[in-house]
Amino acid sequence: MTITLDWEKDGKDWPNREASRFVDAGSLRWHVQLAGDGPALLLLHGTGSSTHSWRDMIPALAETFTVVAPDLPGHAFTSRPTRRGLSLPSMAAELAALLATLKLEPRCAVGHSAGSAILARMGVDKLITPEAIVSFNGAFFPMGGAAGQWFSPLAKFVAGSPLMPKIFAAMADDRTVERLIKDTGSTIDARGLALYRRLFSCESHVAGTLGMMSAWDLHWVESDMRRLAIMLYLVKAGGDLSIPPATANRAARLARKSAVITIPGLGHLAHEEKPQLAVDIIKAPENFVERKH
């Protein structure tokens, strides 16, 4: 278990390390990866993940785009804000500050899970104006079932306890991490599992993850998604055990311009399981559309 990740130690073999840089923007010190030349493409990972989630996609995307992929606030090598700063509107504002500092205006934006919700919020607030947003297994609605019960008001208080990140990080052995990934419906390679274990074994990263989950409120989606003027491509994986695939259809009905793309046989981390397929979808999503709304 580690308290915080050290770039020289924990990042020495980080995927696409040569593209990494540290940038002060807004109230945070960001770890961001920049690669390629061309129209700007923003990649936002999901809760509990990091830039490593795009490890096999960044080189291929960099052939066409200027790729910008940050670690979200409180995740991996990006500094952690206050708990209030981990809310969705705060993250959206901080990311807008990062893009302004980098002087980049994304032509396309891609999100996975919670990253998709951040992009939708940024689009609604006109913090970004890309031609399209591509969402992989987007987490647009409040959690139901066991997860929703866990993040009830009482559970949010428990998640905010300084002891919880220590407990979670101490439990993150190989078997636990492998089970967590399997429970998403995905099967990823040994390299990916090792990187997730490195993250989950870090107290600061776990604190950022739990803080983000407990600070989020997605009840705005039902009303505000209709204000999103950007084309929204909703990619759903048929084997996703974290976000019900039907979520994509529900979001599509709310958005003004949307299309659904189905990829069978993959789980919540579909873009890590089949990175080339994800790259192909990002480059030409219209070729994979199931139906438009």
Give the ordered list of helices and strands.
HEEEHEHEHEHHHHHHHEHEHHE
CATH level-four homologous superfamily name: Alpha/Beta hydrolase fold, catalytic domain
- Structural class call reads alpha/beta
Radius of gyration: 17 Å
CATH architecture: 3-Layer(aba) Sandwich
Looking at the structure, the CATH topology is Rossmann fold
**What's the total helix number?**
14
Task: Describe the protein's topology.
Elements: H1 7-10, E1 20-25, E2 28-35, E3 40-44, H2 58-61, E4 66-70, H3 88-102, E5 108-112, H4 114-124, E6 132-136, H5 145-150, H6 153-159, H7 163-171, H8 174-182, H9 190-200, H10 203-215, H11 221-224, E7 231-237, H12 246-254, E8 258-263, H13 270-273, H14 275-283, E9 291-292
Parallel strand pairs: 3-4, 3-5, 5-6, 6-7, 7-8
Antiparallel strand pairs: 1-2, 2-4, 8-9
Question: Can you give keywords for this protein?
Answer:
293 residues, alpha/beta, Rossmann fold, nine-stranded mixed sheet, 14 helices, globular
Walk me through this protein's architecture.
By secondary structure, the protein is of the alpha/beta class. The protein is built from 14 helices and nine strands. It has helices spanning 7-10, 58-61, 88-102, 114-124, 145-150, 153-159, 163-171, 174-182, 190-200, 203-215, 221-224, 246-254, 270-273, 275-283; strands at 20-25, 28-35, 40-44, 66-70, 108-112, 132-136, 231-237, 258-263, 291-292. A nine-stranded mixed β-sheet has the order 1-2-4-3-5-6-7-8-9. Helix 6 (153-159) packs antiparallel against helix 10. The longest helix has 15 residues, at 88-102. The radius of gyration is 17 Å and the shape is globular.
